[in-house]
Amino acid sequence: MNWNQLQSASIDKVIDWAARQPWCEAMRACLQDAKWHHEGDVWTHTQMVLHELPRLEPWNDLSPHDQTVLVFTALLHDVAKPLTSQVDPATGNIVSPKHAVKGEHLARHILRDLGCDLATREEIARMVRYHGRPVFVMHKKDPTREVVRHSWLVNNRLLHLFTLADFRGRDSQVPTRTEDDLHFWRIAAQEANCFDQPYVFASEHARFLYFRQDNPNLHYVPHEEFSCRVTVMAGLPGSGKDRWLAENRSDLPVVSLDEIRGHLTIDPTDNQGKVIQAARKACRRHLRAGTSFAFNATNLIPLTRGRWLDLFADYGAWIEIVYIEPPLDVLLRQNKSREAVVPERVIRRLSEKIDPPTWAEAHRLTIIGG
Question: What end-to-end distance do the CA atoms of the chain give, in Å?
Fold first, then answer.
């Protein structure tokens, strides 16, 4: 079955399809701690959660899109437990540290291979990553900050509904929480007016600073006087970043890692230290002069992007990120027509690391999928 067929399939048909996938075989073989999951293995729990979805009171009022997001969040929320489960030597309990983070990446790859559109794929992948957050919000020092922050990453209402299904789709010998605990997420989000929508900040700069500060003031209205504007391109080689800049930001000077590599005759597979050093020098020259410019690189993961975004923010720049991701087969064809062709093995390896940007990283975000 492909993505279009799965979207319109019943939950039972989705389960039948999933049961034949290799990642599902791994879930079926992955046992969980009986204290919290007396129902047994990960796949048994997953099916129970899926069957709880239609029993949720608001289910029939949800749009087909929202139902799809919840179904595939339920299907994939524990998909990485087979990779992360281990026995805690201190307690003897089975634990799965960071399974949600690894699950986000696995979900992204599974959905991409199915042909899922980029926007829906990322919505589901982020739901998988943050699916456990509502459980702990009442124990956070600042619950409002939790729900406000997540409202720009996921839909808080859908996250709350999924958490209810996840809670009900298990047989716990030692109940550690009640549904009242889970409803605290909904209450906190409703009080902050971000249950069904992202929190409305005073300005995009107020949002930008809120995500960058350790102890942000939700109601702070910052003065806006930017030194320049930086357009940060992100995407795999061959995705069309140069073309987008030529069509949309042709007036800007461009700091391009590809061009710097060519000038220094450094291959993409070689050590990139000199390339990064030259690029930072070029960026600082524009930033000090107050000249708006574009920065063109792959920028595929938050850690790498973050170093550049920190540099631009330190100089008081207004930052937009433009992320482009056509289907992989299209991208590989486009790469072959480039002047500097990147080896296909390099592109495929990079594609496994993709972690697209979010609204938490920039003043403005543009996502372009094929």
Answer: 20
Of the candidates 249, 223, 226, 252, the one whose C-alpha atom is nearest the C-alpha of residue 313 is 226
Mean pLDDT per 10-residue interval, the chain, length 370 residues: 94 98 96 78 96 97 98 98 88 86 96 95 98 87 94 98 93 69 93 97 96 90 95 94 96 96 83 93 98 97 96 98 94 82 86 95 94
Give the number of other CB atoms < 10 A from CB of residue 124.
27
Closest by CA position to 242, among listed 322, 328, 319, 312: 322
| 229-369 topology per CATH | Rossmann fold (3.40.50)
Q: At 308, list the tokens.
A: 């550049």
pTM score, whole prediction: 0.93
CATH no., domain 3-191: 1.10.3210
- Indicate the Cα dihedral angle 101, 107, 112, 116, nearest 10°: -120
Which is it for strands 94-95 and 293-296: parallel, antiparallel or unpaired? Answer: unpaired
Domain chopping of the chain, boundaries? 3-191, 229-369
